[in-house]
Specification:
Blueprint lengths: L1 H29 L1 H10 L3 H29 L1 H5 L1 H31 L4
Helix pairs in contact: 1-2, 1-3, 3-5
Length: 115
């Protein structure tokens, strides 16, 4: 049940991110000054944390999508859905922990005036 709920939530969140991304990128054709203003608002630590959340959603959605493909096409996967979901969570954690540490180090070094 939780894998189904999280898959839907992450899918909807990714859709809305892509919608906003397309709209803010389209601003460059309408008004380069407006585009620059919008892009400058993205350069803050809150948006850096939002990027971590976005990557977490994409990574979970991708790994769980692969699990769903396995369950749909192979009978052995249907019998092992719970173990596969724990595998998805494990892969997600192994992927996200190093990314989060590295990304937030970069985001907050920019705040302190570092490289």
């Amino acid at each position: 049940m939780w894998s189904w709920v999280l898959h839907r939530i992450t899918g909807i969140a990714i859709f809305f991110f892509l919608l906003v991304h397309i709209l803010d990128t389209a601003l460059i054709r309408v008004s380069p000054e407006a585009y620059d203003a919008v892009m400058s608002t993205y350069k803050n630590p809150l948006m850096g944390i939002g990027e971590v959340v976005l990557v977490a959603a994409v990574v979970y959605h991708a790994f769980n999508g692969l699990r769903i493909i396995l369950v749909d096409f192979w009978a052995w996967a249907t019998r092992h859905q719970r173990q596969l979901w724990w595998g998805v969570l494990g892969l997600w954690a192994v992927t996200m922990i190093p990314f989060t540490v590295r990304h937030l180090m970069f985001v907050f070094s920019e705040v302190g005036g570092g490289n």
